[in-house]
């Protein structure tokens, strides 16, 4: 995933996991650190995670929750009560929260992770949605807390970068099918823009449409909508689609995911956009790209200098490597079940050790030693170095190997290489013993299987059923696999005489055995004596009784129990079968409709490439194969 996104900071919302669900591939990602905010009230619900690439950035503070009332791991002190040098700050005051909902309840659903870098404060949030009336008060309380936290941080002089799933449509340009929705709900556009959640978003961002004037305490906007800054009039820039309607192919969706930043760092960003082509969720990623060099206090500096703790980078050059000691208390790497552990990939990376390198070694050998022996846990940088070195000199490793082989005879007896060669024959003394033990048992298997003993092939090859026939009329062994060559072992196995196998044939489902059974049956029927006896028996049994034709019976049952044929839509394609879930008289009834996605209009269309108006109740359709 990280290779596909090509990002240095990845914010994920709605993880829907608990602490017990965390695995090594989620926490011990080579070259990455991760911070989770998991729900404590609703298990496996909501959840936010932020991954940071250790080779590019390292936070100096980290918190869980939006209000600051949670506590760091192994501590009973709230984040807002920590010493000033350990706080991120900007915590909402009681006067800024108008709702009666407790602050601890707001942070109990795992909806926010906050990281502070020397450059800015990163807030990754998953805002609650209004699914029913019981969630309206909780949603508004969370929005008020988020607004207060952002404004307080900006007033402190800190830069803020807010991103995530806000579950808010900003204006009419950010959703499809709005006119039909307003007409259905008997609502005007001004009323749509003036809903509390949209009013909050349009007041906190620059250029937002606020009807009736701003609210008290929200007079000035503080954030910029980066995607709209780079694409101010782009239609259909949606980030979420309804999966039940398969609305993504027709781009019938809404924009509810944002990347917002404060004014002081707005000029740092060179691009912001959506990645609607990346599938895997009902949302698509939204990204913003920061320039490699930015202006801070009127001075142009590399971005890495202010995205890491002091002293880690100077003028864009790394001064010290990232280590486990740089993990903050809330880092998932410090969870007891993951602390001081390595991923499988880390086990194949060795630290640099001093060695007696011949002076005649080529420069390619030096570069190979450096790239193959990193002395830090930042694997990503060293892996990149290896790839670049390989691309620039593809023939260097072969040359180094050939030169090393040529200089081996000249090495002294005390060199490490001859010592390892002297010890090499020792491990090979054990396999011959095992081989002898295996050979000792070999003669017993050559004596041939007994009456109740089968060969090894018998465990992997199903036995061929043999119909009972007159010994005088029995022919020679028949090889039923006429369509493919038979090996000597298989032929010997089939020709083994066994009274138990002939008297108790076992049914086999292998293709070649089915062919053998059919041929034996054909031979049995074509034999003149057998066919005559069978015909007489059928005549005797049929006197005074009704004989049913099995072929006719099969056709009758097939018509009754045959597979249903799916009806075709107006496009000539198979319809999809769905079940009505809407309460009412038709709830639970199944029906057929066009399987194509809805078009941009959001309605069924005739004569277009999108979903047509085909609708058939399953009870009205009787087509069968």
TrEMBL record:
Question: What is the protein's given name?
Answer: DNA-(apurinic or apyrimidinic site) endonuclease 2
Can you provide one Gene Ontology molecular function annotated for this UniProt record?
Answer: zinc ion binding
Residues that bind Mg(2+): 14, 165, 167, 282-283
The family this protein is said to belong to: Belongs to the DNA repair enzymes AP/ExoA family.
Enumerate the UniProt keywords alphabetically. Answer: Hydrolase, Magnesium, Manganese, Metal-binding, Nucleus, Zinc, Zinc-finger
Annotated site (Transition state stabilizer): 167
Task: Please list the residue ranges annotated as the GRF-type domain.
Answer: 569-621
Q: Where is this site: Important for catalytic activity?
A: 257, 283
One Gene Ontology CC term in the entry? nucleus
Q: Which cofactor does it need?
A: Mg(2+); Mn(2+)
Q: Name one GO biological process term.
A: base-excision repair
Active site residues according to the UniProt entry: 126, 165, 283
* Superkingdom of source: Eukaryota
Question: What does the record say about how the cofactor binds?
Answer: Probably binds two magnesium or manganese ions per subunit.
Polar residues: compositionally biased ranges: 368-377, 390-406, 442-456, 479-507
Which InterPro entries has this protein been placed in? AP_endonuc_1, AP_endonuclease_F1_BS, AP_endonuclease_F1_CS, Endo/exonu/phosph_ase_sf, Endo/exonuclease/phosphatase, Znf_GRF
- Location of region: Disordered: 348-377, 390-512
């Amino acid at each position: 995933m990280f290779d596909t996104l090509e990002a240095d900071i990845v914010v994920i919302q709605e993880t829907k996991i608990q602490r017990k669900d965390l695995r090594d591939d989620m926490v011990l990602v080579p070259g990455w650190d991760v911070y989770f905010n998991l729900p404590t009230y609703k298990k496996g619900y909501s959840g936010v995670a932020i991954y940071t690439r250790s080779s590019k950035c390292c936070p100096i503070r980290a918190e869980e929750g939006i209000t600051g009332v949670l506590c760091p791991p192994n501590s009973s002190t709230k984040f807002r009560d920590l010493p000033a040098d350990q706080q991120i700050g900007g915590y909402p005051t009681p006067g800024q929260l108008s709702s009666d909902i407790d602050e601890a309840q707001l942070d109990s659903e795992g909806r926010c992770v906050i990281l502070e870098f020397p450059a800015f404060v990163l807030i990754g949030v998953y805002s609650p949605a209004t699914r029913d009336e019981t969630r309206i008060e909780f949603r508004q309380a969370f929005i008020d807390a988020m607004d207060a936290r952002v404004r307080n941080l900006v007033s402190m002089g800190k830069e803020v970068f807010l991103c995530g799933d806000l579950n808010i449509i900003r204006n009419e340009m950010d959703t499809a099918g709005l006119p039909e929705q307003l007409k259905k709900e008997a609502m005007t556009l001004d009323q749509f823009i003036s809903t509390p959640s949209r009013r909050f978003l349009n007041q906190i961002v620059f250029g937002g449409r606020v009807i009736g004037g701003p609210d008290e305490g929200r007079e000035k906007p503080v954030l910029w909508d980066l995607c709209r800054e780079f694409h101010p009039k782009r239609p259909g820039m949606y980030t979420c689609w309804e999966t039940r309607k398969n609305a993504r192919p027709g781009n019938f969706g809404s924009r509810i995911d944002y990347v917002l930043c404060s004014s002081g760092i707005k000029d740092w960003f060179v691009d912001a956009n959506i990645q609607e082509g990346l599938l895997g969720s009902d949302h698509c990623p939204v990204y913003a790209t920061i320039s490699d060099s930015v202006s801070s206090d009127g001075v142009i500096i590399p971005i890495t200098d202010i995205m890491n703790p002091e002293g880690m980078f100077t003028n864009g050059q790394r001064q010290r490597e990232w280590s486990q000691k740089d993990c903050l208390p809330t880092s998932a790497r410090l969870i007891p079940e993951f602390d001081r552990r390595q991923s499988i990939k880390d086990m194949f990376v060795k630290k640099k050790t001093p060695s007696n390198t011949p002076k005649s070694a080529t420069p390619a050998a030096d570069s190979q030693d450096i790239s193959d022996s990193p002395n830090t846990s930042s694997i990503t940088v060293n892996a990149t170095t290896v790839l670049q070195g390989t691309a620039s000199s593809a023939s260097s490793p072969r040359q180094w190997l050939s030169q090393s082989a040529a200089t081996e005879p000249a090495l002294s007896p005390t060199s490490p290489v001859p010592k390892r060669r002297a010890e090499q024959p020792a491990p090979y003394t054990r396999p011959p013993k095992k081989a002898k033990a295996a050979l000792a048992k070999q003669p017993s298997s050559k004596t041939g299987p007994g009456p109740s003993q089968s060969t090894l092939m018998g465990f992997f090859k199903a036995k061929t059923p043999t119909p009972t026939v007159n010994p005088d009329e029995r022919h020679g062994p028949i090889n039923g696999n006429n369509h493919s060559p038979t090996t000597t072992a298989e032929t010997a196995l089939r020709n083994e005489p066994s009274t138990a196998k002939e008297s108790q044939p076992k049914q086999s489902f292998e293709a070649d055995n089915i062919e053998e059974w059919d041929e034996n049956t054909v031979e049995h029927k074509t034999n003149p004596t057998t066919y005559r006896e069978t015909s007489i028996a059928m005549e005797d049994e049929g006197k005074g009784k009704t004989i049913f034709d099995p072929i006719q019976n099969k056709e009758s049952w097939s018509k009754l129990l045959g597979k249903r044929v799916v009806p075709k839509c107006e496009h000539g394609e198979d319809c999809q079968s769905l079940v009505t879930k809407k309460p009412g008289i038709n709830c639970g009834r199944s029906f057929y409709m066009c399987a194509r996605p809805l078009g941009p209009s959001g309605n069924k269309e005739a004569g277009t490439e999108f979903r047509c108006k085909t609708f058939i109740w399953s009870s009205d359709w009787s087509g069968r194969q």
